[in-house]
Structure formats: C-alpha cells, structure tokens
Amino acid sequence: MRGKDSMPISPGPFTGRTITGLAQDLRAGRTTATELVMQALDAVTKLDPQLNAFVTVDHDGALAAARRADHELAAGTDRGPLHGVPVGVKDLIDVAGLPATMGSRHYAGHVPAADAACVIRLRRAGAIVVGKTTTHEFAYGPTGDRSANGPSRNPHDPERMTGGSSGGSAAAVAAGMVPLALGTDTGGSVRIPAALCGIAGFKPAYGAISADGVFPLSRTFDHVGVLAGDVRDCLPAYRALTESQLREDVSGARMAWLDPAGLNPAGLIQVDQRVTDLVRTASGARDEVRLPAEVVTALRETYLVIQSCEAAAVHAARLARAPELFGPELLERLRVAAELPGWRYVQAMDGRARLAASVGALFERHDVIALPTVPITAPPLQEPETEPDGEPGAWRGTVRATLLSMTSLWNVVGLPALTVPAGTVDGLPVGLQLVCRPGRELLLFEAAAHLPEKAPSTPGPAAP
Question: Per DSSP, what are the bridge partners of residue 214?
Fold first, then answer.
C-alpha cells in the first residue's frame, strides 16, 4: 500500500485474518476479545490519521463490551462466530450513545438514544462496535470524498477515492483496522468502495436486513450490507444480521458473464478494457448474456428519478430551513432533484415490475450473473463529477455516473449482489460482481469460493 508522500501504510492487525480464524483463536484461548479490541483501537490510532475511516471511536464502550464478551465465553455462553469480534458501523446507522452525523453539518452533535435494528442484531451475535465510520454526506454519492468530516482515503493510495458512500467502512476493513464493518447500499454504496479498496462487499436482497434506525436516502432502494476483508466473512455476518440459516443445495450452479459494454452511460468514461478482461478472466464464466439497451436505459432512468424524488422529500425541510449547511455538491443535487415533477416518480414506480421481469430473464438458464463491479480503478480525490446537461434528474457526471453504472441496476430490482477482489490494474484493485435471485444467496458465496486463489494483475496506464 502507498501512503502520502510515498510513505508505506503498514497493514493493520486484521489484514489477512478471517472471522473463522479469530473465532477459533478466541475459543482456543490464544487471544481474548479484549485483546482484539485493543488491537483494533491501536490500529485506528496509528492508521486513521492517514485514512479518515472513522468519525467516532468508542474506546471505553468497546473495551467494556469486550470484557463482557470474555466473561460470557468463560462462563460457557457462546453467541456464535461474531462473538468478541470488533466491527465498524457506518455513520448513517444509529448506535446508542454515539454521535450520528450522517457526514453533514445538519447533524453535528446529534446522538441517538437507541441502536438501529441491525446494530441490535450485531450485539446479540456478540460483535463489538469499535466506532462509527465516515460516510459521504447523507450517503448521497458514490465517491466517499464529500463529507463534513472530510474524505475517506483509499488504503492503496490515500490520494485516491475509497468510493462511497460507505467509504469509511471499506477503508477501515481494507487497512486491517477491523475485520468487518456495516454499510448501506442505495445504488452501490457497499460494493463500489469494497471493489475500489480491494475487499468483499455484500448487498443482500431488498429488505433482508432491517433498515430501521438507518437514515434514509431513498427508501425504495436503501439496503443494509456488510464489508469484510475475506468474502467468507460476509456470510456469517449476513446470517447474524438476518438470523437466517440459508440452507440450500448449491452444487452445479450455472454462471454467465453479463456483457458490460452497454451499461456505461453514453458520452462518459468508457469501460477500461483491461478491467473488463481482468474481471472476466477471474470469473471463469463461459456463457454470456446481455441486457437489451432499452432495459438498461429504463433501469438507469428509473433509478435516477426514484432516488432523486425520494432524496428531495427526505431533505425538503432542511433544504428550506438551512440550505447553507449542505455541502455545495449535495445542495446542487437536491435543488435539481426537487424540480422533478411528481408524474415522473409515479411512472418510475409503476415501471419497476416490468423491469424486474426483464432482468429476471437473465436467470432463466443461469443461477449467477457475473460482471465488473466498477469499470475503473479508484479515481483521484475530488475528481470532477458533474457535467450539467440541462435536464433535471438526468444521468449526470463522469466519475459519479461511471462508478454507479454497473451496481445501481440491481438496487432497482432488489437483487442480492456480492463483490469480491478480482486483481489489480497498476496496483489498484478491481472487483468482480456476482448477482443472483433473492433466496439463492448461497450461490453467490459458492461461486466466489471457486474463484482463483491468486487474483491476476495488469500493468499499463491506470484507468481514468
């Protein structure tokens, strides 16, 4: 990993360690929850000044929870594989007694009194919340570098984006500060930063993990998801968050490659062919499927209209009362979103069922669809995002639109999607995205388990 001024960033204590391995060490007496939490807190102290992954660190609360976890294990109470494991929680998700700023000056000093439903589940499983991670302002952006708390920075090169909006969670896991973190995903906000930071990220089916206690961006598309250094760790986390056993015969899963050429918005940054070739090689998919151009266009327009209208509704009172507290980019986007007429929202909502049927056709002969997670490597911080084209709610922006181009369509139809590392281009990670029907999530993890042990890499000019 490269640091500022070419100074290396030392990997944190959880780099290369799995939750399964940590669980074995805990139960064998080779470590304690208190030791793991102290390692996490020490790593945050040393590494976070370069990465800005954390907004709030709960030093005393995490150590107290760790001591309780140790006492429980000693007394024979075992809450499962997450028992005693330190985790980060995105600063959009309520944790009782800890500030929840949403990355915005509007919520400076806001401290929720109760845990979000997903945090309750984490604690019930024995996980220990170390702190709150940086989010793009109100989660309204895929870059991770627009926040009242400052940008989160990519551990592979801190002058580049983590991706967003769950950028702090991705940076914390990728740097080895914690082995697991919670994020949210409205158009790719778990998968984009996971891919750009070289870790695993899982967005389950819509509604599979409760969003109660999570600040909304677009209620129709918002998902809670998980980020982990090892893809195998996403599954026990998902089981804990849903209390689901996910028993299914996954032998002989059929996978197809989704040609990504038609997914990038016309006139914007084109798919870097080296990224596509690298990811397809990593997938091992032999069959190929395509989405008709008219379906891609409809998915893109539906996503933009619904997200824009719902975000405008969420922030209407703040926009009227204190617009100066928004960052300039978000203020502009909300004002544009507020101009969309209601009939477009109604049309978009009505059309989602037809789009779900069209996307569902991809799975008539295949169980898992593979494609790149993001078609470029991590761009530099503050890379220009907007190119106004005069139409409210249009697919605007080069970097923003490109980052979202291969992830947002799965939010429109609420399908489970998993990103796993698939190699590097010039030392910067790229991700392979795997998608399936709801209820068949085990197929994603089975497919991921059969990927090459060592991801390839390609030299040459970095993607734009």
Answer: 93
Q: Active site residue: 104, 147, 152, 165, which one?
A: 165
Q: Is 189 a catalytic residue?
A: yes
| CA 237 remoteness from chain centre | 14
| Cβ(268)–Cβ(375) below 8 Å | no
pLDDT at site 1: 46
Residue 210 annotated among the catalytic residues of the structure: no
Cα–Cα distance, 240 to 125 (Å, whole number): 6
Nearest to 147 by CA among 166, 158, 134: 134
| Residue among 161, 167, 135 at smallest CA distance from 148 | 135
Mean pLDDT of 133-147: 97
- The whole-angstrom separation of Cα 36 and Cα 198 is 23
Find the distance separating the first CA and the last CA of the chain, reported in whole Å: 20
Kindly tell me if the per-residue pLDDT of 433 is higher than 80.
yes
3-state secondary structure of 38: helix
88 CB-contact burial (10 Å; exposed 0-12 / middle 13-18 / buried 19+): buried
Catalytic residue among 90, 169, 405, 408: 90
Give the predicted TM-score (pTM) of the model: 0.94
Element (H, E) at 197: helix 191-197
| Catalytic residue of the set 147, 189, 218, 308 | 189
CA distance 317 to 312: 9
Task: Give the pLDDT of residue 349.
Answer: 97
- Look up residue 215 and give its two tokens: 């600040």
Could you confirm whether 6 is annotated as catalytic? no
- pLDDT value at residue 247: 67
